[in-house]
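Thread amino acids onto this structure.
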């Protein structure tokens, strides 16, 4: 095998190891918030970020009165 092939195989193994380490143990929780008015995307994002420290919010399904927050369970 040439040096280039060995280096390429090493880099692939290294990257796969790093990706596996980053995704290991990440669990996501969900919070469904139902409002009296139709969901507004901007408000949903702000409320989720504030309530769940960096959570991601989206109105689901469109149009609806429901805001879905996704956040890390480990925080």
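Threaded sequence (75 positions):
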């Amino acid at each position: 095998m040439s040096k280039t092939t060995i280096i390429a195989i090493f880099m692939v193994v290294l990257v796969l190891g790093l990706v596996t380490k980053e995704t290991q143990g990440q669990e996501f929780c969900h919070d469904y918030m139902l409002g009296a008015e139709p969901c507004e995307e901007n408000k949903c994002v702000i409320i989720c970020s504030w309530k769940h420290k960096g959570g991601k919010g989206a109105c689901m399904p469109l149009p609806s009165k429901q805001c879905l927050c996704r956040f890390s369970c480990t925080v």
